């Protein structure tokens, strides 16, 4: 496909990963976050990842130089998104926040701009209904770390057009990802399964069935999972996992009730790798 101008809204873990992936794939990228400190941190970490990727020959010198020049860091959303072909929102899993951003994007962007949410659980139908272009709103659920993970769930809302779905699939292919098309339902495919597995692992840890290390080891060696469910929860962020579980509990019922241990850890500020401790401790 033709190279695009892509705006990523939110410079957290997923946002900076998306910006890097889009840039090394040849697209022009704006990374937006209203928090200047978070934006500066993202810039530093993206530049470091580019340097390491070049040194290890994961990307060529030409790609390295091109990607460095193609990412712009911008705190003003109206500047970052006004000329975008595609906007990917990658903020917290909070519906009110997402709707607020999409309402702004609907006013700022050209009428033909596709608006995507990177949500792992929430409704693109509900988000799209708050805009004047629900046919151009879609969920594109990427996975962490974005540059390594090969899957994108392309989630069709009630009003999402066939053209928008095909566009999302083409963009995914341009980023060297495999896309699966999903009809909207809370949690899509992967989050519904992953949250159940992770929540049961937390319940087993709470009940004293096995240690966190041994639960994860059993899943990796016995069921061939590349990462244990507790390791993965720490990587995603326990606060993010709790928000996902609360949404699925609200929409799908009792089997998604968050484990009390997860609630306790989040209240204690043990949020996983990003805070230095979760189910494991990190330097």
Automatic annotation (TrEMBL):
It comes from the Bacteria. The keyword Oxidoreductase applies. Pathway: Lipid metabolism; butanoate metabolism. Keywords: NAD, Oxidoreductase. The record marks 141 as: Important for catalytic activity. InterPro entries: 3-OHacyl-CoA_DH, 3-OHacyl-CoA_DH_NAD-bd, 3HC_DH_C, 6-PGluconate_DH-like_C_sf, 6PGD_dom2, NAD(P)-bd_dom_sf. Residues 187-282 form the 3-hydroxyacyl-CoA dehydrogenase C-terminal domain. NAD(+) binds at residues 10-15, 33, 93, 98, 120, 144, 274. One of its GO terms (molecular function) is NAD+ binding. One of its GO terms (biological process) is fatty acid beta-oxidation. Residues 5-184 form the 3-hydroxyacyl-CoA dehydrogenase NAD binding domain. Belongs to the 3-hydroxyacyl-CoA dehydrogenase family. PANTHER family: 3-HYDROXYACYL-COA DEHYDROGENASE FAMILY PROTEIN, 3-HYDROXYBUTYRYL-COA DEHYDROGENASE. This is 3-hydroxyacyl-CoA dehydrogenase. It comes from Psychrobacillus soli. The lineage of its organism: Bacteria, Bacillati, Bacillota, Bacilli, Bacillales.
């Amino acid at each position: 496909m033709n190279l695009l101008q892509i705006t990523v809204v939110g410079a957290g873990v997923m946002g900076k990963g998306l910006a890097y992936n889009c840039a090394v794939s040849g697209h022009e990228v704006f990374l937006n976050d209203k928090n200047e400190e978070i934006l500066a941190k993202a810039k530093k970490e993206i530049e470091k990842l580019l340097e390491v990727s070049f040194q290890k020959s994961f990307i060529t010198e030409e790609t390295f130089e091109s990607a460095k020049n193609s990412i712009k860091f911008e705190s003003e959303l109206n500047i970052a998104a006004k000329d975008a072909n595609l906007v990917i929102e990658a903020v917290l899993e909070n519906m009110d926040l997402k709707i607020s951003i999409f309402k702004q994007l609907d006013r700022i962007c050209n009428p033909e701009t596709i608006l995507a949410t990177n949500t792992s659980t929430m409704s693109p139908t509900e988000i799209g209904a708050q805009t004047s272009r629900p046919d151009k709103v879609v969920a594109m659920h990427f996975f962490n770390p974005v540059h390594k993970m090969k899957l994108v769930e392309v989630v069709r809302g009630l009003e999402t057009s066939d053209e928008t779905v095909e566009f999302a699939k083409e963009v995914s292919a341009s980023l060297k990802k495999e896309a699966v098309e999903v009809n909207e339902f809370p949690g899509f495919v992967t989050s519904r399964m992953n949250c159940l597995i992770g929540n049961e692992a937390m319940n087993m840890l709470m009940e004293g069935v096995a240690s966190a290390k041994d639960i994860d080891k059993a899943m990796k060696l016995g069921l061939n999972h590349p990462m244990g469910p507790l390791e993965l929860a720490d990587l995603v962020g326990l606060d993010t996992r709790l928000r996902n579980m609360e949404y699925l509990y609200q929409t799908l019922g009792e089997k998604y009730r968050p484990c009390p241990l997860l609630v306790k850890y989040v209240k204690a500020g043990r949020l996983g790798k990003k805070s230095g401790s979760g189910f494991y401790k990190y330097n």
